[in-house]
């Protein structure tokens, strides 16, 4: 597996354009021989973040856009997801009560997407700067050596 | 995503292939609603050929469970790939649905 940095950048204007990002991940996976299970969790994490941003960050924004950079470098995958939406701190989203039976959960199905991102990525950080939301995710490509889970949300800044 | 519906004597199998993502969740939701309103109360989701599911896809299974379980119906999943099974486990939904490694095992348990 080459250790040289490989990056793709794209601008998404609508949810439908997420397929372009899937193609970029598939291209990275093919060039770096990434295991299907790792491709799945990377794609899922990006899907959930992009979906949340399009669903919640753009009320009243005339030209919504998400600027996404995905890279592999030295056996690590990382992505920057930058949007021009309203302040949208995903760390404020309440986690689903996954340890309780569905009938006892106050919020039965909400918040699952971001919860999955936290659990599937090795790190997940968010900050707001100069009118933009920045979300960053990172995971090792070798799932066998992955220290799984971005933990309990303490990685947020 | 391609979806095949198979009616068996004791349950209805929904076999999906490729990707269950944003563009296909509405299609599946409409199919599940159609089955439930048509009186089908035992649904088996066969993920043998499914490569991808996201939280929106999971919500459709939960929606089916919420409608069927209180009335004696059942929702089960079979043949999920390891990494999809992991998502069910992380979300706690593996405790909600019957999860089976083969379609035959799932069908015989309905």
UniProtKB/TrEMBL annotation, chain B:
Gene3D superfamilies, per the entry: STAS domain
Please name the CDD domains in this protein's record: STAS_anti-anti-sigma_factors
Q: Where is the signal peptide?
A: none
Coiled-coil boundaries: none
Recorded GO MF terms: anti-sigma factor antagonist activity
What region holds the STAS domain?
Answer: 1-110
Q: Say which domain of life the source belongs to.
A: Bacteria
Matching NCBIfam families: ant_ant_sig
* Family under the similarity heading: Belongs to the anti-sigma-factor antagonist family.
- In Swiss-Prot or TrEMBL terms, this protein is called Anti-sigma factor antagonist
């Amino acid at each position: 597996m080459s250790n040289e940095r490989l990056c793709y950048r794209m601008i998404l204007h609508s949810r439908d354009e997420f397929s372009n990002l899937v193609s970029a991940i598939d291209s990275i996976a093919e060039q770096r021989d990434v295991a299907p299970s790792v491709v799945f969790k990377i794609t899922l994490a990006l899907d959930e973040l992009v979906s949340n941003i399009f669903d919640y960050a753009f009320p009243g924004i005339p030209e919504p856009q998400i600027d996404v950079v995905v890279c592999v470098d030295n056996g690590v995958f990382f992505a920057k997801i930058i949007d021009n939406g309203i302040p949208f701190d995903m760390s404020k989203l309440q986690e689903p009560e996954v340890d309780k039976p569905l009938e006892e959960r106050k919020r039965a199905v909400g918040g699952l997407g971001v919860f999955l991102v936290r659990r599937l990525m090795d790190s997940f950080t968010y900050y707001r700067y100069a009118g933009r939301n920045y979300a960053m995710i990172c995971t090792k490509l070798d799932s066998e050596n992955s220290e799984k889970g971005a933990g309990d949300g303490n990685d947020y800044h | 995503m391609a979806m095949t519906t198979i009616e068996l004597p004791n349950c209805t199998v929904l076999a999906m292939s490729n990707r269950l993502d944003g563009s296909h969740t509405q299609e599946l939701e409409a199919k599940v609603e159609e089955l439930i309103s048509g009186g089908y109360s035992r649904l088996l989701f066969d993920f043998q050929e499914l490569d991808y599911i996201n939280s929106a896809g999971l919500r459709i299974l939960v929606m089916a469970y919420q409608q069927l379980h209180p009335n004696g119906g059942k929702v089960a999943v079979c043949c999920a790939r390891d990494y999809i099974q992991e998502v069910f486990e992380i979300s706690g939904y593996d405790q909600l649905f019957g999860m089976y490694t083969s379609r035959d095992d799932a069908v015989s348990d309905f």
